[in-house]
Amino acid sequence: MGPGFDSIGMALDLWNDLTVTKGEFSVSTTGEGADLLPQDTRNLVVTGLEAVYNYIDEPVPQLQYTCVNRIPYARGLGSSSTAIVSGLVAGSAISGANLSLEELTVLAADIEGHPDNVAPALYGGCTVGVRNGDDKWIVDQVVFPEGLYAVLYVPEMQTNTHESRAVLQDQISRSDAVFNIGRAALLVNALSSGRLENLKYATQDKLHQPQRTQSFKAMPHLINAALKGGAHGAFLSGAGPSVMALSTGREVTISYEMAETARTFGVLGKPMIMPISAEGASVVDQS
């Protein structure tokens, strides 16, 4: 979320389903990214589940994985974290380990490399996650007001997270560091206090959005379009290319302004409107 690079994330009311059954190993995927995701042990769902068995030092049984994906793939909306988390939650249930959220968070963040997307997928809502030493993570939940909506514009083009990170600077100036520290603090305070008018400033960033604008010229224009439409704040979602706005009204207008701006810049895609989810991943049925 904006200045909370690799640290602050938010769960959307947008869900993937994973069904795991006993049987000869197979992976079946329908929906978003079905023709692009590996259908073998490289699939992050399998990675997540196997991480649980490795953690409890037990052999991984033969299992069949059926995935129904609704989260757009490689668009900055946490599709990888969703896969990891769903595998971990399923593994925790099937193995009988019943791991705590803290244990699942450590496993998930170690796989993903940072907690900003896996933590909200586990806990729901808005979370701040930081590394504590080499092998521990601290996650804290941020209170946010009821009635908060996410308005997204999701371009058809995909983003490779590793390539997107490659354009980021290894070193930054003190002024840019102070800029982001202040805005990350203001972001958390604006959400928890309900002073959402401050989100316009609290979602600004100098660590990654300016660099990523080089390959996505429409990004700042989509952000401005969302603010013009009535959003409290807007930012690049994850590594992009999706742009996300936060609102408590005028969602249709915001969505229209973003879509029209995208059309002007020749960016094909789709708008989406959804509430923030207070709930994280869960086991729906175990039999």
What keywords describe this structure?
Alpha-Beta Plaits; 37% helix; globular; Ribosomal Protein S5, domain 2; 10 helices; 287 residues; alpha+beta; single chain; four-stranded antiparallel β-sheet; three-stranded antiparallel β-sheet
Characterise this structure.
- The chain has ten helices and ten strands.
- Helix content is 37%, strand content 20%.
- The chain folds into two domains: 10-142, 2-Layer Sandwich (Ribosomal Protein S5, domain 2); 143-275, GHMP kinase, C-terminal domain (Alpha-Beta Plaits, 2-Layer Sandwich), CATH 3.30.70.
- The protein has 287 residues and is α+β, with helices and mostly antiparallel strands.
- The chain has helices at 44-55, 79-95, 101-112, 118-123, 161-166, 174-193, 199-202, 209-213, 219-229, 251-264; strands spanning 8-10, 17-22, 26-31, 63-69, 126-131, 137-142, 149-155, 233-236, 243-247, 269-275.
- Strands 8-9-7-10 form a four-stranded antiparallel β-sheet.
